Amino acid sequence: MLTDQTIFMTTGAVLIFLGVFAISYSRNLLKTIISFQVVVFGANLGLFASGLGSSSNLMANTLVLFSIVVGGSVEAVGLALIVLVHKKYGTLDPGKIRRLKN
Amino acid sequence: MPGEVALLLSVALLVTVIAALFSRSMSMTLISMFYASLVVGVIFTIYQGILIGLLHIIIFAGAVSVMLLTAVLMTGETDLGIGKRSLAALLSAVTILIVGAASYSLFSTLPGEVSESSTTSVLQFIWTFRPWDLLILVIIFASAMTVVVNLLSKEQ
User: Fold this and answer.
1) Do B51 and A61 touch (CB under 8 A)?
2) Hey, are the CB atoms on A24 and B72 less than 8 Å from each other?
3) Domain assignment present for A95
4) Total Cβ atoms within 10 A of residue B81
5) Which residue in A3, A34, A66 is closest to B29 by CB distance?
């Protein structure tokens, strides 16, 4: 029986897979941040789906709330770092950014 | 009927995410991520998670999309480079295997035997000290914004 919980948990797992794949695949830091956002989406969906079967899903909603706030904050800091890296090195290719000191 | 709605929303989410991740155009990526954020928010809202659905749309479809657009405009990067596909597939498969094994070892009990009370008792403090929970969220968000302002401020 294909329930909503199963569907959303599978979708969350697929999103995490796609995000990790794209993080490894991309050579642009902006694309890496976008891929990280996809991983956060998958984690949020999985957490939310884990609470669908029970009568009270307040616990899952709280965890998703934490995840949303932390994910948004991490992405904001990551984007600010990317802008700084581009100002300093002139590129967003991680392979060309070799000197991390100074 | 509800299963069909879930399936439809999941397919829409996967299509938008794949379009975002595997497109070479940055504008296409940003637009697709915006729609993916909206779809996730709609999923939360439809399945009785109105608060987190709205919060998800506000943060990801609103704030993060604007920040991504600002970063693209500031850096001028529109070409999305492509790395080694086989290595990426191997790394992601290994990651999924590790996460799957860890999840199986953690949640290997049968669905009927999952005791809600044990989890609730462990995390009971969240509901007992609800203001602390909200305070922690505010501290996390404020500290992240402080870091962003510090990073983007000019050096004297």
Assistant:
1) yes
2) no
3) no
4) 16
5) A34
- Give pLDDT tens digits along chain B (156 positions): 567 888 888 888 998 898 888 887 888 888 889 889 989 999 998 888 888 888 898 899 888 888 888 888 888 766 655 556 666 666 666 666 666 666 666 555 545 444 455 555 555 555 565 666 667 777 777 777 777 776 666 654
Please give the Cα distance from A79 to A30 (Å, whole number): 8
Q: Cβ of B88 and A72 within 8 Å? A: no
- ipTM associated with this complex: 0.89
Q: What is the pTM of this model?
A: 0.73
Cβ distance B71 to A34 less than 8 Å, yes or no, reads no
A50 is a domain residue: yes
Interface subset of B 42-71, CB within 8 angstroms of A = 43-44, 47-49, 51-52, 55-56, 59-60, 63-64, 67-68, 70-71
Contact A70, B69 (CB under 8 A): no
Which residue of chain A has the CA closest to B49?
Answer: A61
Domain spans of chain B, in order of start: 1-105, 118-156
- Domain range for A55 is 4-89
C-alpha separations of B83 from B12, B33, B77, B89 in Å: 27, 21, 16, 11
